[in-house]
């Protein structure tokens, strides 16, 4: 049984909904060429080739911009997404952690403290020394953004830790909001609120 584990709900949607992914293989030469351009230049190119996709894309995300241009080169434009998604694959089990607020906050705080002890600040410092700009590091959000600000002496270490903690808590809430909305669409989710209500996989119900 394959297990998909992570923070983005799109992974789940991609597997069980009727997403139509363009059958366009990676063009490494084109990617290398486009990768030398700025996000602004890539966005301007996309506006000319596919104005519709340009209206919905993250204008600062070079990876998505390059992929869109790669698709445009093969298909002419990026195929539009369905107006409404439907869950087609029903043979799945979604397990979601949903502890109480205090436990969630405590877990996030403990995780942050562990990451700091393991060298999170040194990691960001090393990335910058290897050529990743402060602007690029801040675009990653959460830990990278705040550590980058701290290393530039724009915020104190205390503010850095508090910002990461609060932003991580808000991110966790957005994940739960997505899952609840996904559940309303018809997805079957097994919620785990504590270690006491964990069941073996064999005991979980797979939708028919």
Properties at a glance:
208 residues; mainly alpha; Helix Hairpins; two-stranded parallel ribbon; 10 helices; flat
State the domain count.
2
General form? flat
Question: For the terminal residues, how far apart are their CA atoms?
Answer: 17 Å
Strands ordered across the widest β-sheet: 1-2
Describe the model:
- By secondary structure, this protein is mainly α.
- The protein has helices at residues 10-16, 28-35, 39-49, 51-56, 62-75, 101-117, 120-129, 134-139, 142-151, 157-184, and strands at residues 94-97, 189-192.
- Helix 2 (28-35) crosses helix 5 and helix 9 (142-151) packs antiparallel against helix 10 (157-184).
Quick recap of the structure?
The chain contains ten helices and two strands, in the order H-H-H-H-H-E-H-H-H-H-H-E. The chain has helices at residues 10-16, 28-35, 39-49, 51-56, 62-75, 101-117, 120-129, 134-139, 142-151, 157-184; strands at residues 94-97, 189-192.
Structural topology:
Blueprint lengths: L9 H7 L11 H8 L3 H11 L1 H6 L5 H14 L18 E4 L3 H17 L2 H10 L4 H6 L2 H10 L5 H28 L4 E4 L16
Parallel strand pairs: 1-2
């Amino acid at each position: 049984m394959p297990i998909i584990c992570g923070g983005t709900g799109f992974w789940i949607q991609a597997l069980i909904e009727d997403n139509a992914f363009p059958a366009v293989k990676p063009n490494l030469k084109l990617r290398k060429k486009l990768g030398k351009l700025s996000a602004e230049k890539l966005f301007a190119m996309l506006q000319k080739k596919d104005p519709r996709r340009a209206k919905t894309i993250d204008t600062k995300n070079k990876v998505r911009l390059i992929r869109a241009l790669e698709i445009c080169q093969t298909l002419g434009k990026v195929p539009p997404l369905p107006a409404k998604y439907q869950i087609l694959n029903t043979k799945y089990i979604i397990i979601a952690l949903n502890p109480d607020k205090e436990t969630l906050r405590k877990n996030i705080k403990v995780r942050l403290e562990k990451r700091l002890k393991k060298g999170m600040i040194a990691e960001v410092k090393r990335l910058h020394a290897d050529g990743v700009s402060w602007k690029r590091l801040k675009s990653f959000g959460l830990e990278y953004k705040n550590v980058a600000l701290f290393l530039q002496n724009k915020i104190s270490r205390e503010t850095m830790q508090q910002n990461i903690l609060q932003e991580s808590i808000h991110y966790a809430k957005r994940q739960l909001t997505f899952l609840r909305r996904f559940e309303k669409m018809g997805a079957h989710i097994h919620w785990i609120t504590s270690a006491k209500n964990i069941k073996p996989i064999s005991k979980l119900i797979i939708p028919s």
